[in-house]
């Protein structure tokens, strides 16, 4: 790629990030803004993980985007950059047993409250991907498809996704017969076939697999 093409690409990327920063600009005067998102609401196994990120407006992170739109390699690279450049980053995790006990929505809220509560700086405004989290006193701004519209939520989605994927890869060593490293607990044909043949593992969500076992 020529230097000219590189500069064109860089300009295009900065313009895209400018568009994704509209909510950050709108609420900048309120104080510290925290993006929050989750990974793992839909899988048949494993935890739900929430990420909370307070970005530093003076430090650029190129290529932030909805984690689902990024390759695994890109997510891993951005994960490290977010940890390096953000003002504060935390996660919250709720496991499969508790998901079965309180349901996935309440478990997601709990993971999000945990992530926010652990931040070294408490935010003044939460930018949330679609939800309003019960039990938090700060201002909340639910944004439909927020992980594609806010750089803060995009960063949180990457932190949550990478963290959960790493957890599922660790579980793959414990329960290699299910293929968790590949499907990450989601209900793929391979996963459902293994589930029906072998039965559930200790990390399967019993309320999610009733139709399969």
Automatic annotation (TrEMBL):
Q: Does the keyword Hydrolase apply?
A: yes
SUPFAM superfamilies noted in UniProt: Ribonuclease H-like
List, alphabetically, the Gene3D superfamilies matched.
Ribonuclease H-like superfamily/Ribonuclease H
List the Gene Ontology MF annotations in alphabetical order.
manganese ion binding; RNA binding; RNA-DNA hybrid ribonuclease activity
Entry's localization field: Cytoplasm
InterPro entries for this protein: RNase_HII, RNase_HII/HIII, RNase_HII/HIII_dom, RNaseH-like_sf, RNaseH_sf
Q: What class of enzyme is it?
A: hydrolase
- Its principal location? cytoplasm
- Keyword match Ion transport: no
Look up the EC number in the record and give it.
3.1.26.4
Give the CC-aspect GO terms: cytoplasm; ribonuclease H2 complex
PANTHER family in the record, alphabetically?
RIBONUCLEASE H2 SUBUNIT A (PTHR10954), RIBONUCLEASE HII (PTHR10954:SF18)
Task: From the Swiss-Prot or TrEMBL record, give the protein name.
Answer: Ribonuclease HII
Species of the source: Parasporobacterium paucivorans DSM 15970
């Amino acid at each position: 790629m020529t230097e000219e093409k590189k500069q064109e690409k860089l300009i295009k990327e900065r313009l895209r990030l400018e568009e994704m920063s509209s909510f950050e600009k709108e609420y900048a005067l309120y104080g510290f803004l925290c993006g929050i998102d989750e990974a793992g609401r839909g899988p048949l196994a494993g935890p739900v993980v929430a990420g909370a990120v307070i970005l530093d407006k003076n430090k650029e992170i190129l290529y932030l985007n909805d984690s689902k739109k990024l390759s695994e390699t890109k997510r891993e690279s951005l994960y490290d950059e977010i940890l390096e450049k953000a003002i504060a980053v935390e996660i919250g995790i709720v496991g499969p047993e508790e998901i079965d006990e309180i349901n996935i929505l309440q478990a997601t809220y709990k993971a999000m409250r945990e992530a926010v509560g652990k931040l070294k700086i408490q935010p003044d405004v939460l930018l949330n991907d679609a939800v309003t989290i019960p039990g938090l006193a700060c201002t909340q701004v639910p944004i439909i498809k927020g992980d594609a519209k806010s750089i803060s939520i995009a960063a949180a989605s990457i932190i949550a996704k990478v963290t959960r994927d790493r957890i599922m890869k660790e579980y793959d060593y414990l329960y290699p017969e299910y293929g968790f490293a590949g499907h990450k607990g989601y209900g793929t044909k391979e996963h459902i076939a293994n589930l029906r043949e072998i039965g559930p593992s200790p990390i399967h969500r019993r309320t999610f697999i009733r139709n399969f076992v």
